[in-house]
Design goal:
Elements: E1 7-9, E2 13-17, H1 26-30, H2 33-45, H3 52-60, H4 64-76, H5 79-85, H6 90-93, H7 96-112, E3 114-120, H8 126-156, E4 172-177, E5 194-201, E6 205-207, E7 219-220, E8 236-243, E9 246-253, H9 257-262, E10 268-269, H10 272-275, E11 282-288, E12 296-300, E13 305-311, H11 319-336, E14 340-351, E15 356-362, H12 369-379, E16 384-391, E17 394-400, E18 403-408, E19 412-416, H13 424-427, E20 433-435, E21 443-447, H14 451-455, E22 458-459, E23 462-467, E24 476-478, H15 482-491, E25 493-495, E26 505-507, H16 520-536, E27 540-545, H17 554-569
Parallel strand pairs: 2-3, 3-4, 5-8, 6-20, 7-12, 9-11, 11-13, 15-23, 23-27
Antiparallel strand pairs: 1-2, 4-5, 8-9, 8-10, 12-13, 14-15, 14-16, 14-17, 17-18, 18-22, 19-21, 20-21, 24-27, 25-26
């Protein structure tokens, strides 16, 4: 296994190797090298633009080691005793109010970082390791809180009357182990990278990235993109996940830890026993420095592995690059194997009236797919017996024995906060992974289904194209035939909503730039056969006007679309 440093700190994240040592007392925390690094970075962050109190205390301190010594004394002895008996720090302690503010800001500075703990699995069972991870992270949280409270109480000289259980410890914990994959020689550049077995998230998790939109499409490369890799194994992790029915090995640099951890809310993790004797269908390397093959994928025909590559360029620092490359690899695989990737959302709805329908809404990013279904859930809460999400963003149509059925790819949803029903994300806050919540195009990643549900073959009873730009009525219209439908579905027209770098009215072949654009000829064959079958089966195929991109009608348009969809579903079997 790779030797991970005890403590690694960047401008936005901290990684602690919990396998090497555990700071299980307050004094051990203060005596750790990690605290020295945090204090050093905190002092360096105080400049002429900082508050006067912070500048004053910084000028009075010698260095971060003296600050550690002061806090050790404050944890152990009363403030007045230290002030009376310790000459060398008296100048600092006489500025009691300023030092209190300095300490509060230091605590906030620490909590500003994304904080991760890693346990490298040795000989224990996974259950024991899981218990150890939870125990260690709980201890660390309690000790940091206790240290903060005792020190600030001593400085202020006042009793604490309101205890806020702030997330003072780790935001996420990982258990990693040696990789079981016996790699072909082509993939030896990935040798030695640890594999994630378990993820512990302290939710709500708030992650930040340089970018807040994704741009462009992933292009096929004629050259193997991993041939020049020279990775430092301890700086990387691999997360095995299931993208629909396919096994993906996702390799990511520690700079993108928040994106890697976010996968746990979106895709089903692949267990060690499931991957032990299996080669992956997909391999994704996210975060290397070589930019020659940036945003490309390659089909390794010899081993039948689809390989994606995105560099560590700051323009790629956005979760959309993690999610959409995996879906592109999945979709190209599916097209090559005679299945039609669907960029859309599907739900199975059972009404209290007895009607049961599977509804698919197809459309590109920002078209209003997920938003309409969430509005439907809200409007029909008294009429719906159950509503199960099959997929929120990407699924597959498959034709077997003359019948169309559909399965999903993800167990979670990656949703714009602005387009959700007010407060919805906060109702689900105990499971939420927020991304850049303070910025435009803020997102939340929520688990919405189970792997068993998304992989069960579902009938396609209603199939709609999401039109977000048309201000006409009614909210739903039915297509007359295959060519009438395909002329709309094929064009993939929508108004960009700021979810990508696109602006205005744009088009994308079959509303799916994640595989279908790259394989247009093969996709066209599948479109003809699948939609012909849908019409032969009597499936309701139509267009849904969500008005999500019509200024001033973003919410009322979605609600009207959801209401029309509810009436269509509740009509019963005679559509």
């Amino acid at each position: 296994m790779a030797v991970i440093k005890p403590f690694h700190m960047t401008d936005k994240s901290i990684v602690i190797n919990l396998s090497l040592s555990v700071c299980d007392t307050e004094l051990k925390i203060l005596e750790s090298d990690g605290v020295l690094q945090v204090f050093r970075k905190y002092l360096a962050s105080i400049d002429d633009s900082s508050r006067d109190e912070l500048l004053l205390i910084k000028r009075l301190l010698k260095d971060e080691r003296q600050l550690v010594d002061i806090y050790k004394l404050l944890f152990t002895f009363p403030y007045q005793d230290i002030l009376k008996n310790t000459e060398e720090i008296r100048d600092v302690l006489t500025q009691r109010e300023a030092f209190y503010r300095f300490t509060e800001e230091l605590y906030d500075f620490w909590r500003h970082f994304e904080r991760y703990g890693i346990i490298q699995k040795k000989l224990r069972s996974l259950d024991q390791d899981n218990e150890s991870l939870i125990e260690v992270t709980e201890i660390l949280t309690k000790k940091i809180l206790a240290l903060y409270r005792k020190v600030t109480k001593n400085i202020s000289g006042k009793a604490i009357h309101v205890y806020r259980q702030t997330p003072a410890g780790l935001n996420a914990g990982l258990i990693v182990s040696k990789h079981p994959w016996k790699m072909p020689s082509l993939y030896q550049g990935l040798e030695g990278i640890d594999v994630i077995d378990t993820v512990m998230l302290r939710t709500p998790f708030i992650g930040h990235s340089v970018m807040n939109t994704r741009s462009g499409v992933f292009q096929e490369s004629k050259e193997f993109p991993l041939q020049h890799l020279h990775l430092t194994a301890r700086h990387w992790l691999c997360y095995p996940v299931k993208v629909g029915s396919l096994l993906a090995y996702v390799y990511f640099h520690r700079s993108y830890l928040s994106h890697g951890v976010a996968l746990s809310n979106l895709f089903e993790p692949a267990l060690y026993k499931e991957i032990q004797h299996r080669s992956p269908n997909l391999v994704y390397v996210y975060g290397d420095t070589i930019e020659t093959y940036d945003n490309t994928y390659y089909h390794d025909e010899e081993h039948d592995i689809y390989v994606g590559y995105v560099s560590r360029n700051p323009k790629n620092d956005y979760f959309g690059y993690m999610k959409k490359m995996l879906l592109t690899l999945h979709n190209v695989w599916m097209i090559d194997h005679g299945r039609l990737p669907i960029h859309g959302a599907m739900v199975e709805i059972q009404m209290k009236s007895g009607t049961k329908k599977c509804v698919t809404i197809i459309g590109d990013s920002g078209a209003g797919k997920s938003e309409t279904l969430e509005a439907l859930r809200f409007l029909a809460k008294d009429r719906i017996k159950s509503l199960s999400t099959v997929y929120d963003d990407m699924g597959v149509f498959q034709l077997e024995n003359g019948k169309i059925s559909s399965v999903g790819t993800e167990i979670g949803a990656f949703i714009r906060l602005d387009d959700l029903e007010n407060g919805y994300a906060y109702k689900e806050i105990d499971r939420a992974f927020f991304l850049n919540p303070e910025r435009t195009n803020a997102r939340v990643i929520l688990p919405v289904s189970t792997y068993e549900t998304i992989m069960r073959a579902h009938s396609v009873d209603i199939c709609l194209y999401a039109n977000n730009y048309d201000d006409q009525s009614p909210s739903i219209r039915r297509f007359d035939g295959v060519e009438d439908a395909l002329s709309v579905f094929r064009e993939g027209k929508r108004k960009a909503k700021g979810t990508t770098s696109e602006m205005g009215i744009v088009t994308s072949f079959f509303a799916n730039p994640f595989g279908c654009v790259q394989r247009q000829k093969d996709t066209e064959v599948l479109l003809q056969s699948m939609f012909t079958s849908l019409f032969q089966e009597g499936t309701y195929v139509g267009e849904l006007r969500t008005k999500l991109a019509v200024t001033g009608k973003e919410h009322e348009g979605v609600l009207a679309a959801a209401q029309s969809l509810l009436e269509l579903i509740d009509e019963g079997d005679d559509l």
